[in-house]
Design a protein that fits this description.
Helix content is about 30%, strand content about 20%. The strands form seven sheets. The protein has an eight-stranded parallel beta barrel, surrounded by seven helices. Strands 15-14-13-16-27 form a five-stranded parallel β-sheet, covered by helices on one side. A five-stranded parallel β-sheet has the order 18-25-19-20-21. The chain contains 21 helices and 27 strands. Helix 1 links the parallel strand 3 (about 20-25) and strand 4. The chain has about 650 residues and is α/β, with parallel strands linked by helices. The protein is globular and about 75 Å long.
């Protein structure tokens, strides 16, 4: 049993005692706000679930302080007194669990999705958000300063324990701080002292409008990771000034839209754990107030070590709290194996929000639905459920059905658990997919769900089990593309499955047909082995199944001399050792290649469906067996089915 005594030691934030060093940081989740802009029970139950889980400090993600600063459509609003009562309901519900609950004050600046952004200077955002912002006048700057202060006063009246200024990630405060976004020639632009003026005025306004002992934290970037952006020396210079002005803590993060490497501001599976901790460590050298570190920290043992070694005082674990609301209590009890791990896939938590949808989680489809499942009870009459297939959807439906009290058996024709996800964990940087498989294997053991491997699925087996319900989760396999001449070439033809399983021996020069996620990841896999790889993709965009900020990490990895990628490809003919294709108006010939790898899509495996026709059994088909899709969709479907059985 792990003893995480440093992570679970109390700490003082100003005059506020926090029971442990674990922080659920502010995250844009795009749900829990009604059409009129008021927070709802959906948001309340989302936070209550995590407060119950024992986290020391939680922060509502980005409440807009002014109508021009509304970053997302479903962002909480705190710009008017009428918003106070709804927030008070949430703070009252959270308070009983003894954690400290704060709210982050945000103005989105030029990075707002509403298309009417304002900024220090009329310069477009560096990425993601389109459109030209309007330059703020000096009276409007004063209005924004007052808006932050008034919003802090409302936050205190609503029952929050503290507030945090969002001064990071390229939003309005950051735009004043950085040279590349602030081209003003008045007292708010130019010198370092002028560029920090807006933030200092905001801090002073908040301090003037709230109680003397009401803690104020500030989230700032340690590095914008972009040309002429804010850097660590700037952050180290402002940190003691903010402490002197009354900041109770500093929350150190990094990146903006448009940072390099792309997507670094919300690091994916490809980024190392604790990717921004070195920045927080630098800030801690120059201040005496608590410093919070963040950056893809999913392991409580790492969090404990960072505090033990004095690198940071507290640790933010954002997406990890989406994956498991009970993270803190499980870690404190030493039950680390019971924690649902964040994969870093960015599908539900990041990509959904960028598409202006509600956040959710591959590992935890309950995210945004906590209010629907409150008080859900076990079934009165358990059923015997046979799940055929031990891939991701089969494991997920088995888990939730067993939790609800059903008797569940999984039968798998192959000799391993995890299905295609096990193969997905093989390419470079994708090993954390095994965390999914290992977690579900442990859950099956804990719930006493039997898994039978290498099983022949036939009438005899079904009759011997006598299930009430059958769930077909048999997955999918690579589809054979219908391209004239493909099977007449002298090149060796393989599927991505065969390649990743290393069932075949490839030559030094390989063509991959298909630039979907598996195609690109296989290209990365082969390129690391020194192969020359050419990816030919018929569609106009690569790997659309991946979250955007995960995909850009992979694309960056493939920018190496031994990999070429073509999209919008039209194949004209196959040669004995190559292929002729068109891209736009250009004809390109590849020759002297030895192997072709097929990654042009997947097709469902449903051959067992006929076993159950006419026998009166309740049969459900889920996951890729129903329709090949991404992991997020299959997990959501499995969760819903498990709850309905």
């Amino acid at each position: 049993m792990a003893v995480l005594k440093h992570l679970f030691a109390p700490i003082m934030i100003g005059g506020m005692e926090v029971k442990n060093r674990l922080v659920m940081p502010p995250m844009g989740i795009n749900f829990g706000v009604d059409e009129d802009g008021f927070v709802t029970d959906q948001l309340k139950e989302y936070f209550v679930a995590r407060a119950k889980g024992g986290t020391g400090m939680m922060i509502v993600g980005g409440a807009a302080v002014h109508p021009t600063g509304l970053d997302l459509p479903r962002l909480p609003r705190i710009w008017a007194d009428e918003h106070i009562p709804a927030f008070r309901e949430i703070t009252s519900a959270v308070r009983q669990y003894d954690g400290k609950f704060g709210i982050q004050l945000l103005h989105g600046g030029r990075q707002c999705y509403h298309g009417k952004g304002v900024a220090p200077s009329p310069l477009p955002a560096q990425g993601v958000v389109k459109g030209m912002p309007r330059e703020l006048t000096k009276p409007e700057i004063g209005e924004m300063v007052e808006a932050f202060g008034d919003s802090a006063r409302r936050s205190e009246e609503a029952g929050f324990d503290f507030v945090e200024i969002h001064g990071a990630h390229g939003y309005l405060v950051t735009e004043f701080l950085a040279l590349n976004s602030n081209k003003r020639t008045d007292e708010y632009g130019g010198s370092f002292e002028n560029r920090i003026r807006f933030l200092l005025e905001v801090v002073r306004n908040i301090k003037n409008k709230t109680s003397p002992d009401f803690p104020l934290g500030i989230r700032i970037n340690g590095d914008d990771y972009i040309k002429d952006g804010w850097v660590i020396d700037d952050a180290k210079r402002i940190a003691p000034i903010l402490e002197k002005e009354g900041a109770a803590y500093l929350h150190i993060t990094a990146g903006i839209y448009g940072s390099y490497p792309p997507g670094i501001s919300i690091p994916s599976m490809y980024a190392k754990h604790g990717v921004f901790i070195h920045l927080a460590a630098e800030i801690k050298k120059v201040v005496s107030i608590p410093v919070i570190g963040v950056g893809r920290i999913k392991n409580p043992e790492l969090a404990d070590r960072l505090i033990k070694e004095g690198i940071v005082d507290m640790v933010s674990m954002g997406r990890a709290h989406l994956a498991d609301p009970e993270l803190a209590d499980k870690a404190k009890a030493g039950n680390l194996a019971d924690i649902r791990p964040c994969l870093g896939c960015c599908l539900g938590c990041v990509d959904n929000v960028f598409q202006l949808e509600a956040a959710t989680c591959v590992m935890n489809p309950e995210v945004n639905r906590e209010y629907l499942f409150k008080g859900q009870k076990k079934v009165v009459t358990p059923k015997k459920i046979l799940v055929i297939g031990a891939g991701p959807s089969g494991l997920a439906v088995a888990r939730i059905a067993a939790i609800r009290g059903h008797n569940v058996l999984i039968c798998e024709e192959k000799g391993y658990v995890g299905g295609m996800l096990r193969l997905a964990s093989i390419p470079p940087g994708r090993s954390e997919f095994m965390d999914f498989i290992d977690y579900y294997q442990r859950e099956m053991d804990k719930l006493r769900v039997e898994i039978r491997l290498n099983v022949r699925i036939d009438d005899e087996l079904v009759h011997s089990i006598e299930p009430n319900v059958v769930v077909l989760a048999t997955g999918s396999l690579p589809e054979m593309p219908q391209i004239e001449g493909l099977f007449d070439t002298d090149m060796n033809i393989h599927t991505v499955v065969e390649v990743l399983k290393e069932e075949v021996c490839l030559g030094d020069r390989v063509i991959i047909l298909g630039g979907n996620q598996m195609g690109l990841e296989t290209a990365d896999f082969l390129a690391e082995k020194g192969k020359e790889v050419v990816v030919l993709h018929r569609d106009g965009h690569f790997a659309t199944e991946m979250a955007a900020n995960d995909r850009v990490f992979l694309i960056e990895r493939l920018k190496r001399p031994n990999v070429r990628r073509y999209k919008g490809v039209s194949i004209k003919k196959f040669l004995p050792q190559g292929v002729v294709f068109h891209v736009k108006d250009e004809e390109i010939m590849l020759d002297a290649f030895e192997d072709i790898v097929l990654s042009d899509g997947m097709k469902s495996i449903r051959n067992l469906a006929g076993l159950f026709k006419g026998n009166g059994l309740e049969v459900h088909i889920i996951g890729d067996a129903k329709n090949p899709r991404g992991l997020l969709e299959s997990q959501s479907e499995a969760d819903e089915l498990g709850r309905s059985l």
